[in-house]
Specification:
This protein is an all-alpha fold and 752 residues long. The protein has 38 helices and no strands.
């Protein structure tokens, strides 16, 4: 009897003298090995876990950790809990919630899988321990947290690779990361030290050790039950066990290839799309996306829509509206092209699905958004190059840009994960797959109809299919060359303008621009004026008034020079056009403003240097500056795009082209008339010069005679020579001034 008591005492002494962590390690060695060698854990360690298994495991762990952490928090002041309670470093519930939200969407709590019985038993045991034996919580805390902390990084990397997840915080793998623990080895040493310092009797130590074995047993039962569920799923309908994204990918492969190989898409991929085709495509896409996004918003709370509804990241309607406004102008809604029948059928199908079968919307959302997101950047660059657009936000290509998506690859992985988490029956999965094929068919029909429209346009009147800017450029080429080579134009380009000539130039421009801008303002709502009416960016009258005031003073209106007849004829033509044919104003607006915008900086510098002006705002050269235009190249591209989008019949296009030639003709007549005036003035200059020469000879003769005849040495006064022809002949000064003014006027016109 004494021997037995002695042995029991020795056993108690041993339990009392060995660290608790060592006791648990020794007592649970076999259970630990069993847990690591369950089929589920072996497949996980080999990187063979699937996304559905991973999500099911997250649901189970969420059930377990919710119970564990609630009990730890409730018993946080208990002497056997407080030393090993590290919520900031170890808590897993928040990480699991983030992972579940990543995979299941914002409403994940309603869609989280029902945990298996083994997970519920595990949670129930934790509740019982927390309520009746808090000192045993350390067994569960130790086995769970230190196990996760030890294997977290390795398992996280395996899961990332196996599941094709992007990695990083918030990407569905937060459970494996412990951002509050900077050094895992040191932290585990701290934890064991605290745990070993707990003041527990030998009996309590033994109870904790047994509870650790219970914890391992509960984990083993959980892994085995999950494995049974996996095997059961493998024996079910293939449609039910395969990810929805994979089902769609396989079922739509042929349709996908057909869509990519339509004539329109092949030309787009080769960078051969034209601006009219691009604008027509935008109109069609606007019809489709308006329907799609209205139905997604209306069904945003539907369990098959909510997880894949990302309006902040994916919505395209606002981007399409910005592109249409860029190309068609502020009143684009009235001028947007009527969509073809195929686009209307596509939109109609989306309305039907949204109303009667919202669960099928995912098929359209997936095929449209992920397709645009995948090819957006490439197609955007091709379109920019093919269409000569400047690029950047607000430059007619916003549709191809997704500013709300910082990493396209990661976002697509998130989208697929959410989509694959939808709780759909095999029948519903099959219906979604079929709807995805319907979506591709609708797209193919749309592309084919657009291609027919393009071919039909190519067979129509050339005037109707060619951009208006190109028509004008071709039709006015000869007039352009004639104007560039006038003597006045050539002299101005050499920087031979004087200050009086510059002031006369301003008077001429003021006459023309006053008429042009009054007519543009009066017809601002006209459908052929509104898209190209940019008063804030282009108006010149205020700048000319500032320049005239600088040079002529506050009362400049009373001192401004009377404009020549050619300038008055130009202004009169602008008044007539504005009154009777406002659609022709674009010819004058285009040739005038884009010319000034092109040559403004160069001409301004020439004038500043020639006239010795200081430069800068308010220094007599404001006409050459466009402060409302931050980038001249981009703005001219915008202007041409708007101009080319005007809905003009072939006859109206022809009329605008003829009016552009009229504008050139008016200017050429002005140059030629002024050239004659300059020639006449030069003839007068030669006569006066000859008379001056004779007079000088006479004075020299008299001076010589007086010198020879005046032996007293008294010097006779000589008549001073003229101070200069412009001072002597004001009329000549006016003529020369007007001539150079016209030349400057022409430089702007022809630097388009």
């Amino acid at each position: 009897m004494d021997t037995q008591n002695h042995r029991e005492k020795q056993s108690q002494d041993t339990t009392d003298s060995v660290d608790l962590s060592e006791l648990i390690k020794g007592a649970t060695r076999q259970a630990h090995e069993r847990a690591e060698n369950t089929a589920l854990m072996l497949r996980f360690q080999k990187g063979q876990i699937t996304l559905p298994e991973h999500k099911l495991l997250l649901c189970c762990l969420y059930t377990v950790y919710t119970a564990l952490e609630e009990e730890l928090d409730r018993n946080a002041s208990h002497p056997s809990v407080a030393p090993v309670h590290f919520p900031a470093e170890l808590s897993r519930v928040a990480a699991l919630e983030a992972d579940l939200q990543y995979h299941l969407g914002l409403g994940w709590r309603e869609r989280v899988a029902k945990p298996p019985a083994a997970a519920l038993r595990y949670a129930q045991r934790l509740r019982e321990v927390g309520k009746d034996h808090p000192e045993l919580l350390v067994a569960h805390s130790y086995t769970r947290y230190l196990g996760d902390l030890s294997g977290g990084q390795v398992l996280g990397k395996m899961a990332q690779k196996a599941l094709g997840l992007p990695g990083g915080e918030g990407a569905g793998l937060d459970f494996f990361s412990f951002p509050g623990v900077t050094n895992a080895t040191r932290f585990k040493q701290l934890y064991r030290s605290r745990m070993n310092s707990l003041e527990l009797s030998p009996a309590h130590k033994q109870a904790v050790t047994q509870e650790a074995n219970t914890a391992f047993t509960l984990n083993i039962e959980l892994f085995e039950e999950l494995e049974k569920m996996v095997r059961s799923a493998q024996g079910q309908d293939t449609t039910d066990s395969v990810d929805l994204s994979e089902l769609i990918k396989g079922a739509t492969r042929q349709a996908h290839e057909r869509a990519e190989n339509t004539a329109l898409m092949l030309r787009f991929q080769k960078g051969q799309i034209t601006l009219p085709e691009h604008k027509l495509l935008l109109c069609c896409l606007y019809t489709v996306y308006t329907a799609l996004e209205e139905e997604l918003d209306r069904n945003a709370s539907h369990p098959s829509v909510a997880p894949v509804h990302f309006p902040a990241e994916l919505s395209r309607v606002a981007a399409l509206e910005a592109d249409l406004q860029y190309h068609l102008g502020p009143g684009w809604r009235e001028r947007v092209a009527k969509p073809p029948a195929a686009a209307l059928r596509y939109a109609q199908r989306l309305r039907e699905v949204g109303k009667d079968h919202p669960e099928l919307l995912v098929a359209h959302s997936y095929t449209r958004y992920l397709g645009d997101l995948s090819g957006g950047q490439v197609l955007g660059k091709m379109a920019q190059k093919a269409l000569g657009l400047p690029g950047g936000e607000g430059a007619g290509l916003d549709f191809f840009s997704f500013p709300g998506v910082t990493n396209a690859t990661r976002f697509k992985q998130l989208y697929r994960s959410r989509m694959n988490s939808l709780e759909l029956s095999p029948a519903h999965k099959q219906a979604v797959t079929q709807e995805a094929n319907t979506a591709f068919t609708l797209n193919i029909e749309l592309f084919e109809e657009l291609e027919k429209m393009v071919r039909s346009a190519q067979g129509q009147d050339t005037t109707d299919s060619v951009d208006l800017s190109e028509l004008i450029k071709g039709a006015t080429r000869q007039a352009h060359e004639r104007a560039e080579n006038t003597a006045l134009m050539l002299r101005f380009q050499k920087g031979q303008i004087t200050l009086p000539e510059h002031k006369l130039l301003l008077c001429c421009l003021y006459t023309v621009y006053t008429a042009l801008e009054e007519e543009l303002d009066r017809n601002a709502s006209h459908p052929s004026v509104a898209p190209v009416h940019f008063p804030a960016e282009l108006s010149r009258v205020a700048a000319l008034e500032a320049d005239l005031q600088y040079h002529l003073g506050p009362g400049w209106r009373e001192r401004v020079a009377k404009p020549p007849a050619a300038a008055l004829r130009y202004a009169q033509r602008l008044r007539e056009v504005g009154k009777d044919h406002p659609e022709l104003l674009v010819a004058h607006s285009y040739t005038r403003y884009l010319g000034d915008l092109s040559g403004g900086q160069v001409l301004g510098k020439m004038a500043q240097k020639a006239l010795g002006l200081p430069g800068g705002e308010g220094a007599g050269l404001d006409f050459f500056s466009f402060p409302g235009v931050t980038n001249a190249t981009r703005f001219k591209q915008l202007y041409r795009s708007r101009m080319n989008s005007l809905e003009l019949s072939p006859s109206h296009k022809q009329a605008v082209t003829q009016e552009a030639n009229t504008a050139f003709t008016l200017n050429i007549e002005l140059f030629e008339d002024l050239e004659k005036m300059v020639g006449s003035a030069e003839a007068q200059k030669e006569v006066k010069s000859e008379r001056g020469s004779e007079r000088e000879q006479h004075i020299r003769y008299r001076a010589s005679s007086n010198t020879h005849g005046n032996q007293s040495g008294v010097k006779k006064l000589q008549t001073p020579p003229p101070s200069g022809l412009l001072g002597t002949f004001p009329a000549l000064r006016l003529v020369l001034g007007l001539g150079v003014a016209a030349a400057a006027f022409a430089v702007g016109l022809y630097m388009l």
